[in-house]
Amino acid sequence: MTGGPESAVLPPSLRVALGLVAALAALVVLVFGITYADDSEPGAVDARIWAVVDGTGPPWRHLAVVTDFLGEPVGAVLVVAAVVTGCLLLRQPRAAVFVVTGAGLTVGTTTLLKPVVGRTIHGDNLSYPSGHTAFLTAVALMVSLLAAGRLGLGRAVGTAFVLAAGLVAGAAMGWAQVALGSHYATDTLGGWCTALAVLPVSAWLVDRTADRLADRTTAGRRTNPPTGEPTPVGRSATDTVPGRGRRRL
Q1: What Å distances lie between residue 29 and 2, 14, 26, 217, CA to CA?
Q2: Higher pLDDT, 2 or 59
Q3: In the chain, which end has fewer C-beta atoms inside a 10 angstrom radius, N or C?
Q4: Shortest CA distance to 202 belongs to which of 94, 105, 96, 93?
């Protein structure tokens, strides 16, 4: 996890914009969590959306199943492994750490929020926020963040690029979850916002930790130079020492 500012996983030009997005997304997660706490029925918006996409037949249902697999434990591990491998092939260890950390924190956050909110679907199945939607959104956000940094995108273009990637991934997984009857639409919106809230913070933490480790390593090299007795200035290694003859210093 070494590297300078140029290898930051959260590009400096995007920090303020994505920080504001994260704060707004966290507020949405909180409001929806309070609204649907301990609920077991779809809201008005959920019912309307469910009526449109529920009962989707082939080939769309097959596509929904494949998309859903990407958020399942096996599928998620394969996705993360593929992205991490790409980062390592590009010699970006900090980015690889970011992918693992970001995915873990995002999924962990949804897992912790579900019993707190207590919203259920199909009996006792906790549903808010959608972990599948949060995961795929997080992966898209991380990949687009890394791409924006490598391409040197500016604040406006970079922010739009990252948010667009997250929106496409979140919408795809959200549609699959509703079409398969696994989540209410508002659950998927909550999952999408959870990823938007967690990822900028994850990126900042990884960058801060990596920079501190790099600074400590640099400082250690300066205060602890390589051992060995230096030759005094103005005296060669074979100068004569009075009373002792010639010897190497």
Answers
A1: 34, 22, 5, 40
A2: 59
A3: C
A4: 105
Q: Return the closest-CA partner of residue 117 out of 109, 126, 125.
A: 126
Which DSSP string do the residues of 129-145 spell out, in sequence order? Answer: S-HHHHHHHHHHHHHHH
**pLDDT tens digit string along 121-149?**
999 999 999 999 999 999 999 999 999 99
Within 13 Å of residue 135, how many CA atoms lie on the same side as its CB? 24
Quick check: 201 and 22 in contact, CB under 8 A? yes
Distance of alpha carbon 191 from alpha carbon 137, whole angstroms: 8
CA angle 138, 144, 150 (to 5 degrees): 140
Q: State pLDDT tens for residues 138-193.
A: 999 999 999 999 898 989 999 999 999 999 999 999 999 999 999 999 999 999 99
Which tokens go with 69? 């697999």
Instruction: Look at the block and give the residue holding tokens 């920090």.
Output: 15
Q: What are 121's strand-pairing partners? A: 125
Half-sphere exposure of 188 (CA within 13 A, CB side): 31
Helix 73-89 to helix 131-151 angle (10° resolution) is 10
